[in-house]
Amino acid sequence: MTRIVVDAMGSDHYPTPDVEGAVLAAREYGVGIVLTGDAEKIQPLLESHRASSLPISVVHAPEMLTMNDKGDDLVIKARHKDAKNSMAVGYDLVKNGEADAFVTMGNTGAAMVTALFRLGRIKGVDRPAVAVPFPTANGICTILDIGANPDCDPKNLLQFGIMGSVFAERARGVKNPRIGLVSIGEEAGKGSELVKATYPLLQNANLNFVGNVEGKEIFNGHVDVAVTDGFTGNVMLKSSEAVAKLLTEKIREAVKSGGPLTLLGGALVKPALGKIKKLLDPSEEGAAPLLGVNGLTFIGHGRSDALAVKNAIRVAKNAIESNLLSAIKSAIEESLKK
């Protein structure tokens, strides 16, 4: 049976949504779940959900990593061989073959640093990248990196393109995914020095590289994977989330203040607006993969609810069943031969 570790102390309101989401996933997807965290807080929640018959176990981890853990303090907690925080314990289960993937709604930086120390990098990958799904006009575009690596070199972006292509094909079922390089113009000579130096690397790689793409091409669905540095990707992510929230709130305000006819019209279009809200809701995806570490790792929002945790486990399950890790290793190994 597939076994997935869930960091029960990850979300902002731990461990309630983390445990509830794990219970939902165990029931719906038939996967084994290992919860890492404070057993005294986890067990009562499992009992309240009548989860005794489900394939859920608890591995006690009395400590946790938070947003306050930074710098040398974080490094010590992440790398110490006897670390007892819920992330380190969870990663060790994956490393030792006792689980197939790790899911956390905790601190992204802590999750990445701990993964690097506990799992290590895939051979040939200099920097792992967080790959986030963006809704587009005709589906989903995977953008990487979105914050793990603010400063990158061309070789980093090439590796992001290779890993993103494998992820889109294996985990999302996109045949021969189109790869685009985020820039300020479509022409090959446009963009920053980083973009101009990366372009020929992607062009000469064994990828379906379609060239530079601007933001509008991404949202119009012209590419399946968009490659960029973590600084640019994070600005794109945060700006898009803010715009989506602003538009939703403004539409709601306009309907409420527009009089009886507007309220009636709002009621009529409410189902359609509900579909749009679902499309923009990050909980529908649950978590983003950290590609490039030697183990399947998925990181979600700290504000995640039970639905987001459940869906994160689904994304992890799909990655396991599609042999994503092995496929990325093979693709990176092949690229090193050139």
Describe the model.
With 338 residues, this protein is an alpha/beta fold. It has three domains: 3-125 and 292-336, Isopropylmalate Dehydrogenase; 131-230, Isocitrate/Isopropylmalate dehydrogenase-like (Rossmann fold), CATH 3.40.50; 236-279. The mean pLDDT is 88. The longest helix is centred in the last third of the chain and has 27 residues, at 230-256. The chain has helices spanning 16-29, 39-48, 71-79, 86-95, 108-118, 154-170, 193-204, 215-219, 230-256, 260-280, 306-321, 324-336, and strands at 3-7, 32-37, 56-60, 101-104, 129-130, 132-136, 139-144, 178-182, 208-213, 225-227, 288-291, 296-299. α6 (154-170) packs across α7 and α9 (230-256) runs antiparallel to α10. The chain contains twelve helices and twelve strands.
Which helices and strands, and how do they pair?
Layout: E1 3-7, H1 16-29, E2 32-37, H2 39-48, E3 56-60, H3 71-79, H4 86-95, E4 101-104, H5 108-118, E5 129-130, E6 132-136, E7 139-144, H6 154-170, E8 178-182, H7 193-204, E9 208-213, H8 215-219, E10 225-227, H9 230-256, H10 260-280, E11 288-291, E12 296-299, H11 306-321, H12 324-336
Parallel strand pairs: 1-2, 1-4, 2-3, 4-12, 7-10, 8-9, 8-10
Antiparallel strand pairs: 5-11, 6-7, 11-12
Helix pairs in contact: 1-11, 3-5, 4-5, 6-7, 6-12, 9-10
